[in-house]
Sequence to fold (488 residues):
Amino acid sequence: MDTTPTPESSESARAASLRYGEHTLATQVAARVAQRIDGHALKAGTRLPSIRVYASEERVSRATVVAAYDRLIAAGYVESRRGSGFYVRPRRASSIPAARDPAARAGAARAGEPLRAQALDVVWLLRSQLRQAPAVDHPGAGLLPGDWLDGERVAAAIRAVGRGRGNWLTKYGEPEGYLPLRTQLSQRLALFDINAGVEQIVTVGGVTQGIDLVARHLVAPGDTVFVEDPAWYVMFARLAAFGAKLVGVPRAADGPDLSALAALLTRHQPKLFILSSVLHNPTGTSMSLANAHRLLQLANEYRFALVEDDVYGDLHTGRAVRLASLDQLQRVIYIGGFSKTLAANLRVGFIAASPARARELTELKMLTELAAPELTERVVAKILIDGDYRRLVERVRGKVESARERTARALEKMGIRLFAAPAGGMFLWADFGRDTNAIAAAGAQEGILCAPGSLFSPLQLPSTWMRVAATTSQNPAAMKFLARARSF
Fold:
């Protein structure tokens, strides 16, 4: 077994050595500096305050600061430059994803900074969202507050499933997924005018895994994949890992920019196009019927598959246009889940596709994970069967609508332009008129989590746009920060 420490594990170990060692005053000072470096609030190459200045700022002795800086040097966070002072050390390139854009790399080189020192990467944002529970009311949040969801109802369903009889818990689940859940999903899809029998539905561990499974099935190294620009940032890295060539299609208020798409199709032959029809992340907009019809025509003409990510669809009020309902799963692969409305920790999602494609995806699923995690699928099935889900979603939707309207009004009063009036959902796409990487970096220094626009583009170029969570209006400190953001 290879026990060579990875850059990430080494980083975690050095952080732990500072934070959980002897609880001396010097250790505490060092731990606070290390936390700011880990959180990207202090960039590589940043000069730390002199020993005298820092001692005065922290109201500690100079000897304490000397000991703290010595600990940071020993842990690899800081380096001492004779006659100049103490500086944050550049991190190893393997621990921070490199900027994909050549211009960004050249800019970093001209500035004399380590690669990615001036940007905030996808992994950093994900790690911040996953580790910082209070960040659900921050601008960069990706989840709703836990008290908006019905955790008690989910817990009751877990207890009920646990009391069930049979030895199913000690066996593998069905490769296609728990049949009663797939039956409920088939009935739910019928409400969206999507005709999918149980044999056309494959369960997965959330929408992220669903997209991953489809990409594994369809994408070979060198294949071109169209994605929306902006779009959900996590899939960019996943597709690139499969060797795909990513091409961004600009997003308009009514769906993909069809003029831009048509032009791109004259130069590229995509294998598939991954997009959201309903409550697009990050703009919150939904596709028009005319846009959807024309998109399907282009897909048929140029023979590429469409992957429709509908993870936010249940938050939409009224009737929404879905590609799968127009196409009836001939060329469209539909992916949905429950992480945004029930509980992120359940990790239950599903794929609906043509019968042949569903069989192929099931076979691939068996090769990658053997079978479905039936415990969590039984929990979701029980909630759907008992009829509780509709009422849960209605309550959540009402809270989201109210919070989004408050946040939108507040942003507009600050003079911040919104991309469009969202059709619903959790997010607002806002133009701050300046590079939002700088805003995110300033936010990190103040404990405010932001999601800069560069993350949402496959090119990851600097952007004046930023995704703002609907729940931000609940956080006065975050709103005050955004009001100052354009003046940084």
Notes: The chain is about 45% helix and 15% strand. Residues 1-23, 92-120 have pLDDT under 50 and may be disordered.
